[in-house]
Amino acid sequence: MTTSTLTKTETVSKPLQVNLASKETEKPIPNYPKYKFLKWEFETPIIWVNVFFITLYHIIGVYGFVTHPFLTRPGAVIFVVMYGSLGGFGVTGAAHRYFTHRAYKAKLPLRIILLLCFSISGQNQLKDWVRDHRVHHKYSETDADPHNAKRGFFFSHVGWLMMRKHPEVIRKGRTIDISDLYEDPLVILHQKYFTWLKLLLCFVIPIVLPPYLYGETWYTSVMACFTRYIISLNSTWAVNSAAHLWGNKPYDKRIYPAENLTVSFFSMGEGYHNYHHTFPWDYRTSEMGKSLNVTTFWLNVFQKIGWAYDMKTPSTDLIKKVIESHGDGSHYKWGHEVPAWENDNCKLIEKKL
Pick from 311, 307, 305: which is nearest to 109 by CA? Predict the structure, then answer.
């Protein structure tokens, strides 16, 4: 592997760009007054439709999990984990590492898999996901950050999806180049049929398949689907909230993102967030490689069969220099102060390396 950086793609043709982006960029930037609801005051208006559906999904998922013995039904557990992992990979390996950061290149079969897995995740449209995440990296923890962690855990976790975007998010977001998405015919096709693909792959198939595949009850199948969905959503959201608020900072102590092993476990490797914000082009999002990083494992598999290539990583010398210059001293190898709760794990990792 060689050190490389995220490269900019060539500008797309004007007609294509107009078709996909002009309506959004021509809208005036709103200037919301302070929004009051009961005794609370908010920066921007609440989107009550989003509040209703996000709350409803969670009520159904939690109710189904609490009232139904999922853990006593091996088929349901296995299906939820396997299907949920596909959706998780669609966020981590597709939307995040490939489409947003271009941390590696993918051949046609893998690009199809990435888009299908992203549909399984049931999240926002790909162009919105990529733009929001790129502006998040460029303006992290400012008013231009869609899920600014300085506004608290709830806002950075899910509250930002329940209200209108801060005007600065829109203003800075329009300066972010996402023209590379418009150059990919598969992305254009996915964008065109996004709603149908999301409904089919995130809800219809995982509900219909278990009863016919292994005789699951319809009630269990429906409840398992919503349980999987809210676990997947919260695993993604935790990267924006918990991994920006709690953890050590061995690579750059000047920023909010931190190393959070719990988040890494649930998000398939995205919780090594201090590293990721320091080296956002690294396809592993972690110096530790496959440690609690299922996404990196599968990307390495695709690399071995030739479907993924040009896997970008920073050099060891660069990592070491950054740690020595800006780290908080907690790095397992080059730091000076290792948190007590990490001592055993760090020694084990170092021995393996």
Answer: 307
pLDDT (tens digit per residue) in 213-234: 888 889 888 988 999 999 999 9
Distance between CA atoms of 243 and 258, rounded to whole angstroms? Answer: 5
Please report the DSSP string for 90-159 in residue order. IIIIIIIIIIIT--SEE-HHHHHHHHHHHHHHT-S-HHHHHHHHHHHHHTTTSTTSTT-GGG-HHHHHTG
Measure the CA–CA gap between 331 and 329, rounded to whole angstroms: 6
Query: How confident is residue 109, by pLDDT bands cut at 50, 70 and 90?
Result: very high
Angstrom distance (rounded) from CA 182 to CA 131: 12
Do the Cβ atoms of 233 and 61 come closer than 8 Å?
A: no
Average pLDDT over residues 180-205: 95
% the chain with pLDDT above 90: 66
Residues in Cβ contact with 320 at an 8 Å cutoff, skipping those fewer than 6 apart? 334
